[in-house]
Amino acid sequence: MSEEMPNASLEIHNERRFPQDRDTLFSAVADPAKLARWWGPHGFENRITAFDFRPGGSWRIVMTASNGDEFDNHWSFLAIDDGRMVRARHHLPMHDFILEMRFEDHAGGSRLVWVMEFEPTEENQAMAHFLKAANDQNLDRLAQFLKGENDDR
């Protein structure tokens, strides 16, 4: 439970290890040009229309599916611990939830711990399996992006 979402008791937890260091991993979230290249499940392209990366700042991203459907997403950054953690709230009309991304050092690279907090509504419980799989796709895309970044060096 959190003070930002007092009735949150449904959590979706994903994590992934990466060969890149923690700062490189964090920069893929903190830099909107990088973030736009990997965010979302497979088949989406992104356009970031606002990105004020600070506690209290706003983030807007338009995700375009392969069929052309657009999804306008609005986020607020709640807390940022540079290089270590980002906590943000995704606002309605789609899903209202808190996402916390923790960036950790790990032998040979880093680890991203990705936790979504929802209120335990029937709709959210029905979406949990889909969202866990979509998060895995998100992390797949992040891994592919980071691999390409290393190949460019």
TrEMBL record:
- Pfam families (UniProt xref): AHSA1
The cross-references to Gene3D superfamilies, in alphabetical order and at most eight, read: 3.30.530.20
Family annotation (InterPro entries): ASHA1/2-like_C, START-like_dom_sf
Q: Which family does it belong to?
A: Belongs to the AHA1 family.
Q: What is this protein called?
A: SRPBCC domain-containing protein
Annotated ranges, domain Activator of Hsp90 ATPase homologue 1/2-like C-terminal: 22-146
